[in-house]
């Protein structure tokens, strides 16, 4: 029997309508609408699409948004000045600096990404990339949760997949997905309770010996490497749940990190690309923006 497809798009729509209802309550309580400020440096086409999708999602949820476009030639000092301006603007609830920043090869000026993320006020850090929010998560007292791993927790919870006591293998150790994902699932509790936490977690990466055997031990396999279709059927334990975080553009098509057709024949449940984890990332960004507005209004 082929795997159940986990419909991220549908679950994201559910979360977005919950956020929209909460925004309405917040605004009818006399608060200004939450506002998300996105900063886009350069003209990367994938980033343009993402920023546009995000603006549309904000509008549907009653969240205001502003987009500051800056040329690829922007210097680090100029970008830091923009972040400082947004930090100081009381109308701005959340700040997102779209990554990646343009590399020198793409006309960029060699901005240090870390310096920019470090400059975002932690109370407006809706990506949860700032060291304060990363540290709070590590200590098990998170404020903002990073959007992609939080979306995956929501997906598991809302489809009734428990991680408690199970072996989760996370392939990829990025600061944005792999590391926080592993931490969130290993902890005692999550935003969705202990059933979607308490996992035994292995972090695998490009230097892992016997990657196939390691992956095959997973009850839940989370692929977040950014290499198209690198997870093949033989790396999946029959009946495992497969979560594909990859968004790779190959020949103008979106493919995940999982070879979907063959994986679907082995797994019990799997997320498609597109329509899996991606839409949840945006839903959790809206959630974080509302949370930021509430915190700034002193209501959380
Ligand atoms: N500061 C920052 N924060 C981010 O969260 C961030 C970022 N920079 N830079 C780029 C990555 C990538 N990312 C995606 C989010 C949603 C989809 C998404 O909704 N994808 C749709 C398909 C969209 C399409 O067709 O292109 C899907 O998977 O179904 C994709 C990619 C957020 N990122």
From TrEMBL:
CDD domains attached to this UniProt entry: NAD_bind_m-THF_DH_Cyclohyd (cd01080)
Tetrahydrofolate dehydrogenase/cyclohydrolase NAD(P)-binding domain residues are 146-296
Q: In which pathway does it act?
A: One-carbon metabolism; tetrahydrofolate interconversion
* Superkingdom: Bacteria
Q: Which residues bind NADP(+)?
A: 172-174, 247
InterPro entries from the entry?
Aminoacid_DH-like_N_sf (IPR046346), NAD(P)-bd_dom_sf (IPR036291), THF_DH/CycHdrlase (IPR000672), THF_DH/CycHdrlase_cat_dom (IPR020630), THF_DH/CycHdrlase_CS (IPR020867), THF_DH/CycHdrlase_NAD-bd_dom (IPR020631)
Task: Give the protein name, as stated in the record.
Answer: Bifunctional protein FolD
Species source reads Rhodopirellula bahusiensis
Q: Specify the taxonomic lineage.
A: Bacteria, Pseudomonadati, Planctomycetota, Planctomycetia, Pirellulales
